[in-house]
Amino acid sequence: MRKILAVIFVCLLGLAAACSSTPTPVIIGPENALELVHPDEWPVFTDDLDSESLVLACDSALGYLQKMPPERLFNFGGAHFTAAELIAALERQKDMLVRYPDPVDRTQALKREFNLYKSRGSDGLGRVLFTGYYEPMLEARHQPDAKFDQPVYGLPENLLTIDLQDFSELLPDKKLVCMVEGKKVVPYYDREDIDFEGQLKDKAPVLGYVDEMVESFFLQIQGSGQLQFEDGSRLRVGYAGANGHPYRSIGRLLLDEGLMQPGEMSMQGILKFLDENPQHMRRVLSHNPSYVFFRPLDTEGGPLGCYNAPVNGGRAIATDRRFFTAPAMAYIETEIPAAEDQVRPAARFVVNLDTGGAIRGAGRVDLFFGTGDEAGRMAGHMKYEGRLYFLLPK
Predict the structure, then answer these.
(1) What digits encode the pLDDT tens for the residues 157-215?
(2) Strands (E), the chain
(3) Rounded (5°) CA angle 32-45-344
(4) Would the pLDDT of 4 be above 80?
(5) What does the angle CA 354 – CA 359 – CA 361 come to, to the nearest 5 degrees?
(6) H or E stretch including 18?
(7) Phi, psi of 270 (to 5 degrees)
(8) Neighbouring-strand partners of residue 7
């Protein structure tokens, strides 16, 4: 009996030791999303794009920051900087990155004036998932016909936004998107209501008509695009607002149901599946209740990001604005699609000029690839892990 008790006691001690050594799960939030990188551990800053595109991205960021009060504070994963500090940093970085084309010289010069912070990812281990987005070009009509009958909606007049803190500071810092029905405030229409029940007919402006509902769906996922009309005119449309419902991934739904396999999963793969299986269209699209409304934009320059500043292909990224609250110089190391079924390494400076409904936490980045079909092909196949850094003032 003593031997049995001794064995049980030793086992219990081992179990306790194992439990005590199990690391506590790390919760990454806006205040601990970045960690300072020791100067001896900096990467060598190579860059696979031209300097002119980087200058354009910096100028977009400066255009936003220069409109802010100089003392306005911005949070970067727990480190806080004023608008004036971020402006000075970007101006200096823009000059240095052009002045020092050699990667080693560039890295040493940046070390003298800036700190480098690395994203801790979603789990504290530094892993960041990179996806891609682009600006689609869609054939459209000003008036509906037998083929082009899917509306691209502007912001509805009956859509309301309520800031709870306007009523009391004791309420959560949250905005509700809603509408009025009789004497009640109710949630706004979801995708099923809008696309399949026609609830917005004659209730919202229409910017144009495209020929397939799934084209409108992916236009909303991208957040901007260009409508090309039969008379040769073009209209660039950008994000104007959303219906307040949560974003849900239809790709995840198709994987969970076994209707698609991981190797098939891309924007192009989803389009192909829905084209070949139209019986699933309504159920699959309605799985994502979130709906985006658009506004006309100037066709010159590029599409606008979340700071109302132009984004340019290869240099703009979308991050979670709750974690990284202003545009700043960043550096990414990942892979990107190359020729069909091939990938290549990518290491470059970028600026976080955008955000997105599916981009949540410190472990998600969306890279903007530009405009048109080739950009769409690359964005649709982009899904690789990598690292995200920010260069911020000392």
Answers:
(1) 999 999 998 998 889 888 899 999 999 999 999 999 999 999 999 999 999 999 999 99
(2) 34-36, 73-76, 79-82, 114-119, 128-135, 137-140, 150-153, 160-163, 175-181, 184-187, 206-210, 224-229, 234-242, 292-297, 316-318, 329-337, 343-354, 364-371, 383-393
(3) 95
(4) no
(5) 110
(6) helix 2-21
(7) -65, -45
(8) none
Q: What's the half-sphere exposure (Cβ side, CA atoms, 13 Å) at 111? A: 15
- Structural contact between residues 28 and 122, judged by C-beta atoms closer than 8 angstroms: yes
Element (H, E) at 15: helix 2-21
The separation between the first and the last C-alpha atoms of the chain, rounded to the nearest angstrom, is 66
* Residue in the block written with tokens 């920010």: 390
**How many helices (H) and strands (E) would you count in the chain?**
10, 19
Pairing between strand 150-153 and 206-210? Answer: antiparallel
Cα separation values, 328 from 61, 114, 316, 366, Å: 7, 12, 11, 15
Token reading at 317: 């990224």
Q: What's the whole-number average pLDDT of the chain?
A: 90
In the sheet where 234-242 sits, what is the strand order?
A: 137-140, 224-229, 234-242, 292-297
Is the pTM for the entire model greater than 0.85? no
Residue 351 in tokens: 């600026």
Q: How many CA atoms lie within 13 A of 387 on its CB side?
A: 18
Q: What is the pLDDT of residues 308-344, one digit of tens each?
A: 999 999 999 999 999 999 999 999 999 999 877 789 9
Closest Cα to residue 329, out of 27, 46, 52, 86? 86
Q: Identify whether the C-beta of residue 189 lies closer than 8 Å to the C-beta of residue 159.
A: no
